[in-house]
Design brief:
Blueprint lengths: L1 H32 L3 H8 L10 H13 L1 H11 L9 H16 L5 H15 L4 H16 L1 H5 L2
Helix pairs in contact: 1-2, 1-3, 1-5, 3-5, 4-5, 5-6, 5-7, 6-7
Length: 152
């Protein structure tokens, strides 16, 4: 019984990770193609990982990022050492997602938000991009989740 529960929990994590990957791909497409949100949502359904993802989580996360894009741009700019347009589109997409989770979704533990961002950067980013993402997200977590961050 316990093994079945563990598998279900692992599947949920994988579903959410796949959802984050799809959100990253969606934002990446938007950065390159001026954010036709309806077309992005339609096209992402053709991604083979869409069937493995948590569809509700994908839509909530993508819609949340898109609804808060202006504030997220301000946040990103305040935590990085270069103009945001100098970030690679992958790093920029990952920061949108992770900073959104750290700022607007307190149900996601800050360590999970950071870890998921770092893992996406390891898979999709440049050689040491994950180190940069980790450093930025640590600063964001310290500011946005001070009580949670100070307990670790």
């Amino acid at each position: 019984m316990l093994e079945v529960q563990h598998k279900k929990k692992k599947k949920l994590v994988n579903n959410r990770r796949k959802s984050r990957e799809l959100v990253m791909k969606s934002i990446y497409c938007g950065i390159l193609n001026q954010f036709d949100i309806n077309q992005i949502k339609k096209d992402i359904k053709d991604d083979p990982d869409y069937l493995k993802a948590d569809e509700v989580f994908y839509h909530n996360l993508f819609d949340g990022v898109m609804s808060n894009m202006g504030q997220l741009n301000t946040e990103i700019a305040s935590f990085i050492d270069r103009p945001p347009e100098k970030l690679s589109p992958i790093e920029h997409s990952i920061l949108y997602i992770s900073i959104y989770e750290l700022t607007y979704d307190v149900t996601i533990p800050y360590k999970v938000a950071i870890n998921e961002g770092v893992e996406l950067a390891k898979i999709y980013g440049g050689i040491d991009g994950y180190k940069y993402i980790n450093g930025v997200l640590d600063k964001v977590a310290a500011k946005r989740r001070p009580l949670e961050f100070s307990k670790s």
